């Protein structure tokens, strides 16, 4: 029995979906512990591409139990679409279990998210406008009581919750945004309609997980977003409204920290970021464009072009500490294949001082000058390589440098999007 947490080292999109899919092959249970449909995992199986925003990527294995934990927020429309889409492609969702405690993203959350971002104008914090932030805000506010998945099992209860919410939301809409008030009944009907297909999957996922641990199951906890989007440990305020870090896996499932055996920190061999916020190693130039095109760096969820840059070793070292990482999952090595030289940021200079970890006041990142170590590139195709020894020496030297910075080994090196394009090197 082992419990492994998979967590992103950067600002999301590190390729966690591929590695989760890979580890799910040997797992009995895959759990999502936080976030909502602002995540976007792409998994390629037999040339078929699956884009999953909410449902854990373990769903592609028929025997694997897939859990959406207490810490997630769920948009019933998105869930219904994803569920129906998978079912239409012949993927059964019978093994899906959804925590009744997970909060529901309601139509008014999406509306408020968009109105709030519009009102911020140039000072936008770069949300996906999917209502995730407003749903988590209501969860923390507690009163009026928001809608949770349990409430989708009882229409009268759902109506009562929506009435309570709209009494407040309509005042906000009118006074702050000069927007039309919303009516209770259409919202209840809409959400109730989407919930019908998935309601049978709602249950006490915490009890289920404890049972599975007691039975000796192998469990993979699938993070969404990345370390530097964490509400507390990210580049605040340009962060998400939940906890993508490994500690979030405990909060979002009810498992205690000692239940976790290993933490696989997934990092690209370069860095990307979507939306606003500081990004010291950004290459807003030809290098950045080349990485974007070779790595197909456009958001899975929004289609937005991702900002691209060199690997930020300072952020990597910090992410290892925050997550208690036991090994690295290095992805997209192949994207750097054609480059003559490759840079890695090994320190920042801020106000004349050197930093080898990200300062806790992450707003200071916008003043950071990256200090790079230049490495020779390998100028050849790595996408067919399956054994570590067969990688070109320069690529192995690059991996070694990242291991040295991180202080933990790279247990997985990925050289393409396919399941088979993976080099396994020892324990997680
Ligand atoms: P996630 O949210 O962390 O799962 O990341 P995304 O799915 O948004 O982005 C990762 C993208 O890179 C997806 O399109 C994957 O299919 C793809 N991918 C994952 N690993 C590799 C790799 O090693 N090489 C290449 N070229 N693509 C990869």
Task: Report what the structure shows.
The chain is an alpha/beta fold and 428 residues long. The chain has 2 domains: 3-90 and 204-424, Adenylosuccinate Synthetase, subunit A, domain 3 (Adenylosuccinate Synthetase, Chain A, domain 3); 103-199, Orthogonal Bundle (Adenylosuccinate Synthetase, subunit A, domain 2). Helices cover 31% and strands 20% of the residues. The protein contains 11 helices and 20 strands. It has helices at 16-24, 76-88, 107-120, 132-141, 155-177, 184-195, 205-214, 246-251, 286-294, 313-323, 393-406, and strands at 3-8, 29-32, 41-45, 48-52, 65-68, 73-74, 96-99, 103-104, 202-203, 219-222, 262-268, 271-273, 307-309, 311-312, 327-331, 341-350, 353-355, 369-376, 410-414, 422-424. The strands form 5 sheets. It has a 10-stranded mixed β-sheet with strand order 9-7-5-2-10-1-11-15-19-20, with helices on both faces. Strands 14, 16, 17 and 18 form a 4-stranded mixed β-sheet that branches. The protein has a two-stranded antiparallel ribbon with strand order 3-4. A hairpin with a 2-residue loop joins strand 16 and strand 17 (353-355). Helix 3 packs across helix 4 (132-141) and helix 5 crosses helix 6 (184-195). The model has no long low-confidence stretch (mean pLDDT 95). Bound molecules: guanosine-5'-diphosphate.
């Amino acid at each position: 029995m082992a419990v492994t947490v998979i967590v992103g080292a950067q600002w999301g999109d590190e390729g966690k979906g591929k590695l989760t899919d890979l580890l799910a092959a040997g797992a009995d249970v895959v759990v999502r512990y936080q976030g909502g449909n602002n995540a976007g995992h792409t998994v390629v199986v037999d040339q078929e591409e699956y884009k999953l925003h909410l449902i854990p990527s373990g769903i592609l294995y028929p025997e694997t139990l897939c859990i959406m934990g207490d810490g997630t927020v769920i948009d019933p429309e998105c869930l219904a679409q994803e569920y129906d889409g998978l079912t239409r492609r012949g993927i059964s969702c019978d093994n899906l279990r959804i925590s009744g405690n997970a909060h529901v993203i309601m139509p008014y959350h999406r509306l408020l998210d968009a109105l709030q971002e519009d009102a911020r104008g140039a000072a936008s914090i770069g949300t996906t406008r999917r209502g995730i932030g407003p749903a988590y805000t209501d969860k923390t506010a507690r009163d009026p009581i928001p809608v949770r998945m349990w409430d989708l099992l009882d229409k009268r209860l759902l109506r009562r919750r929506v009435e309570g919410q709209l009494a407040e939301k309509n005042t906000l809409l009118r006074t702050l945004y000069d927007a039309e008030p919303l009516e209770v009944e259409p919202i209840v009907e809409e959400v109730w309609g989407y919930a019908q297909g998935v309601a049978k999957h709602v249950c006490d996922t915490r009890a289920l997980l404890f049972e599975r641990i007691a039975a000796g199951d192998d469990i993979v906890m699938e993070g969404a977003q990345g370390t530097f989007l964490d509400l507390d440990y990210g580049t605040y305020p340009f962060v998400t409204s939940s906890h993508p870090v490994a500690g979030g896996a405990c909060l979002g499932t009810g498992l205690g920290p000692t239940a976790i055996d290993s933490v696989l920190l997934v990092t690209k061999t370069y860095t990307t970021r979507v939306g606003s916020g500081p990004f010291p190693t950004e290459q807003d130039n030809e290098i950045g464009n080349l990485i974007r095109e070779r790595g197909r760096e456009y958001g899975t969820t929004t289609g937005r072009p991702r900002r691209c840059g060199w690997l930020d070793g300072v952020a990597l070292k910090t992410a290892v500490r925050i997550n208690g990482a036991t090994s690295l999952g290095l992805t997209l090595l192949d994207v750097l294949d054609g480059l003559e030289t490759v840079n890695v940021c090994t320190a920042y200079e801020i106000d004349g001082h050197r930093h080898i970890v990200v300062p806790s006041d992450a707003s200071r990142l916008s003043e950071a000058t990256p200090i790079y170590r230049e490495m020779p590139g390998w100028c050849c195709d790595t996408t067919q390589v399956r054994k570590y020894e067969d990688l070109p020496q320069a690529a192995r030297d690059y991996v070694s440098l990242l291991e040295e910075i991180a202080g933990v080994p790279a247990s997985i090196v990925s050289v393409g999007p396919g399941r088979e394009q993976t080099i396994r090197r020892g324990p997680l």
